[in-house]
Amino acid sequence: MPTIAREIVRRLALRGAFACALLSSAASQLHAQQSEIDPSLNETVLMVPKKGLFTIELETTIYKPDGDGPFPIAIINHGKAPGDTRFQSRYRPAVAARFFLQRGYAVVVPMRQGFSKSQGSYIGVGCNIGSNGETQAEDVKATLDYVTAQGWADKNHILVIGQSHGGWTTLAFGTFNYPGVRALINFAGGLRQESCSAWELGLAKAAASYAKNTRVPSLWLYGDNDSYFKTSTYRGMFDSYTEAGGSARLVAFGIFGADSHSLFGARTGARIWQPEVTAFLRSVGMPSERLEIYAKYGSANLTETPPSTDFAPLNDEAAIPFLKDSGRNGYKTYLTKLIPRAFAISPNGAWGWAEGGEDPLKRAMVNCNKFGKGLCRLYSVDDFVVWHSESQ
Questions:
Q1: pLDDT in tens, 114-127
Q2: What is the mean pLDDT of residues 299-308?
Q3: 141: which strand partners?
Q4: For position 270, what pLDDT does the model report?
Q5: How far is residue 354's CA from residue 171's CA, in Å, rounded to a whole number?
Q6: Which residues of 104-133 are buried (b: 16+ CB within 10 A; e: fewer)?
Q7: Which residues contact 29 (CB under 8 A, 6 or more apart)?
Q8: 222 by DSSP, 3-state: which?
Q9: Residue 33 has pLDDT above 80, yes or no
Q10: Which residues, at least 6 apart from 251, have a Cβ–Cβ distance to it below 8 Å?
Q11: How far is Cα 174 from Cα 197, in angstroms, rounded to an integer?
C-alpha cells in the first residue's frame, strides 16, 4: 500500500477510535446518571413487564415508605423532552416523592415504552393526539397491573398524576376507568405538535373525547407563561373537557418563573401546587395530611438555589464565560433536559450538569469540580441564569 494511502487509513482508524471513545464516555455518563439511587427516599428501580404479543419491560422507579403496607399508590407520568426518547433520562420527581411519602403513599414512576431504558419504541401516532395519549396510557395500565398485584399496594386507593406529555397520558388513562383509581392530577398536560394542522383544536377535541369516557374527577394546573401551551390553549382544552361532562377543577396560577411549564419539577413550585393538591386529595377521600410516622421523608438539606440574574438569556450559550466549544455544546444538551436541572462552570473551562433527583445543583457542582479544581460556580438552574459578572 502506498505511503499516502496508509496514512489516510491510519488517520481514519484513529478518528474512528476517538469517536468510539466519545460514545463510550457519553454512554458511561448516561449510565452513571441513570443508576443513581437515593436511599433516603427508599428509591428502587425495576423492570416491569408489559405483556402482549411480545413482552417488553418498562424501567420503573419506586419510592416506598418503610413497612409492609398496604400503601395507597401515587403513579407519576413523565413528560417528553426534545430529541430521541431513548436518550431521555430516568424520571426522578424527588420533590413530589417526598410530598407523597410523608402522607404514606408508595410512589411509582414508569418510563413509557421507548423512553430511557424501557424496551420497545415510542409510538407517536402521527397527528392523532387522542390516540397518542391512549397509546401512552397502555403503559400506565401495565405498570398498575404489576403494582396492584404486590402485597404492599392498596389497590383500592390509587392516584394518577402527570406532567406535560405525562399529564396528557394521565387524562387519557382516565378513560380506562381502572379499578381503584380515585382521581387524576394534570400538570400542564398536552403535546405541542406544530407540524400538525390546527393542533390546538385537536387537543381540545381529544380532551372532550376523554371526558365522555372518564368517571373520576381531575385537578388541572396551568400557568400563563407556559412555553408549550398559551392561556387560550389550556382554557380551550379545559372548557371542552368540562362541557363534555368531565369532572374537573382548573387552577390557573398565573405567572411562574421564566416558564410555568416547569412548575411541577421546580422546588419553588411546591408552594403553589402542594396546597392545591392537598385540598384535592381531601375532597376525593385520599390521604392528604402528613403523618408523624413518615416525618423522616421531610425535606433534606438541599443546596440553596441562587436568585435569577440578568446576566444573559437562558438560551445564549455564546454568553457563557470560560467555556470552549465542547462546553457550549454540553450546555445545548443541558437545555434539552427536563427540570429540575443545573449547570456549573469553572474559570479553567471545566463544566458539568445534572438533572432530576432531589439536588441536581449539588450534583452539577460535583460533576464540574472533577476537573474544575474546586472553583466551579452555578451558571444556570432550571429555566433561568444565576450567574453574575462578579462571579468571574
A1: 999 999 999 988 99
A2: 86
A3: none
A4: 93
A5: 30
A6: bbbbbbbbbbbbbbbebebebeeeebbebb
A7: none
A8: strand
A9: no
A10: 219, 220, 221, 222, 273, 276
A11: 26
Least Cα distance to 158 among 35, 146, 168 occurs for: 146
Convert the pLDDT of each residue in 243-287 to its tens digit: 999 999 999 999 998 899 999 999 889 999 999 999 999 999 999
Grid cell at residue 154: 392498596
CA atoms in the 13 A half-sphere facing the CB of 214: 28
Query: Got the DSSP string for 131-192?
Result: HHHHHHHHHHHHHHHHHTTSTTEEEEEEEEEEETHHHHHHHHHGGG--TTEEEEEEES----
C-alpha to C-alpha distance for 367 and 346, rounded to whole angstroms:
11
Tally of residues, the chain = 392
Domain boundaries, the chain: 30-297, 304-391
- How much is the pTM? 0.83
Grid cell 406532567 in the structure block, residue:
163
Closest CA to 106 of 151, 139, 164, 138: 151
What is residue 59's three-state secondary structure?
strand
Cell of 378: 452555578
Q: Identify any residues that bridge with 108 across adjacent strands, giving them in sequence order.
A: 62, 75
Half-sphere exposure of 35 (CA within 13 A, CB side): 6
Pairing of strands 106-110, 71-77: parallel
30-297: CATH, from 3.40.50.1820, 3.90.550.10, 3.40.50.880, 3.20.20.140: 3.40.50.1820
**C-alpha span between 387 and 392 (Å, rounded):** 9
Mean pLDDT of the chain: 90
194, pLDDT greater than 70? yes
